[in-house]
Amino acid sequence: MCVFCGSSKGADGRFVQLARELGTELAIENFQLVYGGAQIGVMGAVADAALKKGGEVIGVIPEALSEREVAHPGLSELIVTSDMHERKRKMYSLADVFVALPGGMGTLEEIFEAATWTKLGMHEPKKYKPVVLLDEGQFWNPLKEFLDSLVNHGFVAPKNRTIVISSSSVGEAIAAIKEISKEIR
Fold this sequence. Notes:
Shape: globular
CATH topology: Rossmann fold
CATH class: Alpha Beta
Largest sheet: 4 strands, parallel
Structural class: alpha/beta
C-alpha cells in the first residue's frame, strides 16, 4: 500500500488525525505501508501510527530531501534515492494500490503520475494499480470534479476515470483496497 500525502500538517488538524487513523488500520489489516519517508507532517503521522501498531513501514526519500523533510529514523526500512523520479519509481514498484491523503503539489503529481502509469500499463510487477482518494471531509471534491470535467470534455475515457476512486472514510478505503486486492491477484 503506497500512501501519498503531505510533508506539512496542513491548516486543519483533522488531516493529521486522518493519517493516524489510516496508519493504524493499515497495520491492523497487515498492509505494508510504503510512503515518502519523512517524519514530519501528514507523512510522519501515517508512519508513526502504523509503526505504533506494529506495522511494516518502508519510507522512500530522495537524498536531497532526507534532511529538509527529515527522514524518519524509526522505519522498518528507509530507502534513499538519488532523485524524485527514482523515488516514485521505487514507491510504485513496491505497491499494489495507492491511497492519497490530503497533501500539496507533490501529492497531486503522484496521484496523476500513478494513475497515468496505470492507464498506460506501465506499472510493474502488476499493471493495474488504482488510486484511492481518502476523501473524508470532502478535501478531494475539487479534484474529483476536475477529473469528471476531463471526461466530459473528451480528454479522459470514462473507463479510465475509474482508475481514481474515492472513499469517504478510512473504513471505506480499507474495504475498497481489500476488494481491489482480490481483483488484481
